[in-house]
Write a structure and sequence with these properties.
By secondary structure, the protein is an alpha/beta fold. Helices cover 48% and strands 15% of the residues. Strands 1, 4, 7, 8, 9, 10, 11, 12, 16 and 17 form a 10-stranded mixed sheet that branches. A 6-stranded parallel sheet has the order 20-19-18-21-22-23, sandwiched between helices. A 3-stranded antiparallel sheet has the order 13-15-14. Strand 9 and strand 10 form a beta hairpin. Helix 19 packs across helix 28. The longest helix has 27 residues. The radius of gyration is 26 Å and the shape is globular. Bound molecules: ligand 26Q. The site of ligand 26Q has 25 residues, from helix 5.
Length: 765
């Protein structure tokens, strides 16, 4: 679908006049942004409406996080009008690029939230009826700055420029009930466009409000104070996204958020079904639900509750749930598997807790299997509730699903062998190549046409053409690097010569992801160069990561790397060969700039810990080699592109498991003076340690009951071997061919493939 440019211009002018009393020549950036967005919304509205009312079975993707990033460029591209709009604005002296100041919608933490966003776009593109349901947080993931090397957090006022891409639907508001509080849930709908597609999905995010508008008269009455408090609590539910990634914090407000979101979504849906006089027993014919990890799993007992209230028996309601719920697991880490106290649940949502107990009873009856439980010792295990009721449960990469089957969920697998399946993650090639790297996309178009935009496996057709693309590829990468360097200079005040190798690790900060391993290698190179014992081609080590504000060790790692950056960049003997930068406030928009400019993609988690990873796929798609472990989707990247075209090191899952049993990092340190030197910077005054956090970081790697849980020290030597090999290869023709071969092999990692697999194997649509 493509709008008529003239119609768009007329709509735009109408909005500028009516809403801002201005015109194209005089509008400011903010007015222009809102008006352009609204004009696109208005033009696309009939298509959106038609998509909703096509009578097909729909999947509802329940997720506490949707990391959408900035909408405007992606939407204009997907609608096929980005060039027309750019030209139109130019005619009146504006530049589309000015909208880069618009805040990201960062209503998610990392991989899990971004995956949800990629899947919505891919489903719309592929004509799969998929809608997202979540929470409209007033503040998204915090904005990060560094002060004296320490992370500081500020509120993320993502609505600062307005939210022209959403529509508030008061008509569909519902009331969510807690034992102590009633809350009005008001939906805001955002259209999700597909690339060159008539299918438009909907992202419905719920906002919490007081049930009644605030009543000042109530101050004079007995209940005045309570009313005021309720008003306050009601708004608070959606105040802010919990900034944790792969760690669970058992906060009651978080529980309220989870119940708020699923209850509102299901009340809304059941009300619609009733309005259409549907038999609720047949609900699975029209809907299915995908639970994005355990965060929305309360949807299961909530639907049981609602359906029984509507007259179904428990068995009938349970049957509906079995047929409609499915569950994706994104982690094997014990600290991320959600558990809630029975007491908290029975206090807050007693009727829902009763349904959980009913599920536990039914599980015992059905299986008699003592190893399987949902509630034990007054703790509710949310993943187990999902494992029991969901029709299908999926892991997010082959290796990850294997571990789930063999270990984490072994007993469940034995009981329900058909339930667990794998669907390897994917990314949308529109945002992660077409939009962020238009020059490379055009180069590919010139070789094989544009079909790959929606059939990414066609990239394989590039394979015979790679040698002839080499010079253009190098030039484009060089230009992207220069742009990124200029941006980093502006934002971070650090100079990176574009001719340097760009070695990049960007992802959430977590011990298992091992930013520390990368940091120690940087120190290894630093001392090697300083003492004239080794040489490397000039390299910039680029980091980006947010640490959960309550995650002490993660914050210590940020401080560590920032101090290394100050040491290296400030040393005139070394800085001609090395630079280090930790970019502030890494987010989706920063990622778009970084991914197209990287020479090395660092994917160095301890084997078995990263369920999949998705930034690894983004780098690959932009023609970047992976320096990584055999973990998550890295394994499949090697299968597709050849291990010999990437740089693989470190313990495998099996080795890691064996080593961990009787592991003593101190012995390894004693045998490796260069490693010891690097580690000692944390305690010998080489790096300033005002708070003692570097000492704590040192201790976590070397002492105590279980030192170095993530085998940083164990993998260090092999990591250096692989990294030095990569740096030696860099710049040779063989090296550039590896980059291109990775690009040409990235077809599997399209989110289009993933959503089609969900539609066929799970949703049956
Ligand atoms: C749970 C309870 C209470 C508070 C917070 C949480 C919580 C929040 C976020 C638990 C986990 C997360 C996020 C997990 C996540 O992003 N996992 C990543 O999912 C990606 C998509 O599948 C994978 O590629 C990554 O490997 C995985 O780490």
């Amino acid at each position: 679908m493509k709008f008529r440019a003239k119609a768009f211009e007329e709509t735009l002018c109408g909005i500028l006049a009516a809403d801002y009393a201005t015109d194209l020549a005089h509008a400011n950036k903010r007015e222009l942004y809102n008006a352009v967005s609204k004009a696109a919304m208005r033009e696309a509205y009939p298509m959106w409406q038609a998509s909703k009312e096509n009578g097909r079975k729909r999947c509802k993707y329940f997720s506490a996080e949707f990391l959408m990033g900035r909408a405007i460029f992606n939407n204009l591209m997907d609608l096929g009008i980005i060039d027309d709009v750019r030209a139109l604005l130019q005619k009146y002296g504006h530049d589309l690029g000015e909208f880069e100041e618009v805040e990201d919608a960062a209503l998610g933490n990392g991989g899990l939230g971004r995956l949800a966003a990629c899947y919505l776009e891919s489903a719309a593109t592929k004509g799969i009826p998929l809608d997202g349901y979540g929470i409209r947080y007033r503040y998204g993931l915090f904005r990060q700055t560094f002060e004296q090397g320490f992370q500081h957090e500020e509120g993320d006022d993502w609505l600062k420029w307005g939210d022209p891409w959403s529509v508030r639907v008061d008509r569909d508001a519902v009331v969510v009930e807690f034992s102590d509080l009633k809350v009005r849930a008001v939906p805001y709908d955002t259209p999700v466009f597909g690339y060159g597609s008539d299918t438009v999905g909907t992202l419905r995010l719920w906002s919490s409000e007081p049930v009644q508008a605030f009543d000042f008269g109530a101050f004079n009455e007995m209940q005045g104070e309570r009313k005021a408090e309720e008003n306050f609590n009601a708004t608070k539910i959606c105040d802010v996204l919990y900034p944790n990634d792969n760690t669970m914090v058992g906060k009651i407000l978080r529980l309220r958020q989870q119940y708020f979101m699923v209850s509102a979504s299901l009340l809304d849906l059941v009300r619609k079904e009733k309005a259409e006089k549907r038999d609720l027993r047949t609900l699975p014919e029209r809907y299915c639900f995908q639970l994005n990890d355990t965060h929305p799993v309360l949807a299961i007992p909530e639907l049981l509750r609602i359906l029984q209230r509507e007259g179904l028996t428990f068995d009938e309601a349970f049957d509906v749930c079995r047929k409609s719920f499915n569950f994706t697991n994104h982690t094997i880490m014990a600290e991320a598997l959600e558990k809630w106290d029975s007491l908290a649940l029975s206090d807050l949502i007693p009727e829902v807790y009763e349904e959980i107990l009913a599920c536990q009873r039914r599980l015992t009856q059905e299986t008699g299997n003592k190893k399987l439980f949902i509630v034990r010792d007054n703790v509710v295990h949310m993943a187990n509730l999902a494992l029991y009721v969901a029709g299908k449960v999926n892991g997010v990469a082959e290796l990850h699903t294997g571990i789930l089957k063999r270990e984490t969920f072994r007993d469940w697998c034995a009981q329900y062998p058909e339930k667990l399946i794998n669907i390897t993650n994917g990314i949308t090639p529109r945002r992660w190549l077409l939009l962020n790297n238009p020059e490379l996309a055009a180069l590919i178009d010139a070789e094989i046409g544009k079909n790959w935009h929606t059939e990414l496996s066609e990239l394989a057709k590039l394979k015979p053409h790679l040698p002839s693309m080499l010079e253009d590829f190098k030039r484009i990468k060089g230009e992207n690097k220069a742009k990124l360097a200029a941006y980093i200079k502006e934002k971070e005040g650090i100079e990176i010569p574009p001719a340097f190798i760009f070695d990049v690790q960007v992802k959430r900060l977590h011990e298992y992801k091992r930013q520390t391993l990368n940091a120690l290698s940087v120190l290894y190179f630093y001392f090697g160069i300083k003492e004239k014992k080794l040489e490397i081609p000039p390299t910039a080590f680029i980091f980006g990561a947010k640490a959960a504000p309550g995650y002490y060790m993660a914050k210590a790692v940020i401080k560590f790397i920032n101090e290394i950056a100050a040491l290296v960049n400030g040393d005139p003997e070394v800085s001609p060969y090395m630079r280090v930068v930790f970019v502030q406030n890494y987010n989706v928009s920063y990622a778009e700039k970084i991914v197209c400019a990287a020479d090395i993609s660092e994917q160095i988690s301890m084997a078995g810990m990263e369920a999949s990873g998705t930034s690894n796929m983004k780098f690959m798609l932009n023609g970047t080699v992976t320096l990584g472990t055999m973990d998550g989707a890295n394994v499949e990247i090697c299968e597709e592109a050849g291990r010999e075209n990437n740089y693989i090191f470190g313990a495998t899952v099996e080795e890691a498991e064996a080593v961990s049993r009787f592991y003593c990092p101190r012995e390894l340190i004693a045998q490796n003076p260069a490693l010891e030197r690097a580690l000692n910077t944390m305690i010998d005054g080489t790096l300033p340690d005002e708070t003692g956090c570097l000492k704590k970081l040192y201790e976590s790697l070397t002492t105590g009951h279980a030192p170095d849980r993530y085998l940083v020290i164990y993998d260090f030597a092999d990591y250096i071997r692989a990294k030095e090999e990569l740096l030696r290869d860099y710049g040779s023709e063989a090296f550039w061919m590896k980059c291109l071969y990775n690009l040409a092999s990235a077809g599997k990692f399209s989110a289009d493939r993933s959503v089609c697999a969900y539609a066929e194997q799970i949703w049956k649509i």
